[in-house]
Amino acid sequence: MLNEFKTFIAKGNVVDLAVGIIIGAAFTAIVNSLVGDLINPIIGVITGGIDFSNLFINLSDTDYTSLKAAKDAGAPVFAYGSFITAVINFLIIAWVVFLLVKGVNKLKDATAKKEAEVAAAAPAGPTEVDLLKEILAALKK
């Protein structure tokens, strides 16, 4: 079982997945900053100064001035602004991943095209049948 585990871990897919998770975690911090520090303020200006992250519906009888104050007090809240921010984060991450995959696929296609051109330009060697015929003729001598 230990050898199977070593084989599993040594496969490139597991290492690629681990690298992807680490890069994804670092990328999440960048996207959160992009959304929180750049995009939400722009959306706030467009929508008249609304800060999505602080939008909530108070489900208690007490009034709170901010979502943080309500959460600190332990009040039940419906924090739909946080959800909107999460949706914006998701859309940005999905868009960037789409662009990255598109770029990688474009590079792969260009590389495959060059390899196909090189393979087509290379002189065709003898086929397997031709080699077997030569071996047979040599053995007959």
Number of helices: 5
Structural class: mainly alpha
Q: How many domains in all?
A: 1
Give, in order, the helices and strands.
HHEHEHH
Can you walk through the features of this model?
With 141 residues, the protein is an all-alpha fold. The protein has one domain: Non-ribosomal Peptide Synthetase Peptidyl Carrier Protein, Chain A, CATH 1.10.1200. Helix content is 74%, strand content 3%. It has five helices and two strands. It has a two-stranded antiparallel sheet with strand order 1-2. The two termini are 55 Å apart. The mean pLDDT is 83.
Based on the model shown, name its key terms:
Non-ribosomal Peptide Synthetase Peptidyl Carrier Protein, Chain A, 141 residues, two-stranded antiparallel ribbon, 5 helices, mainly alpha, 2 strands
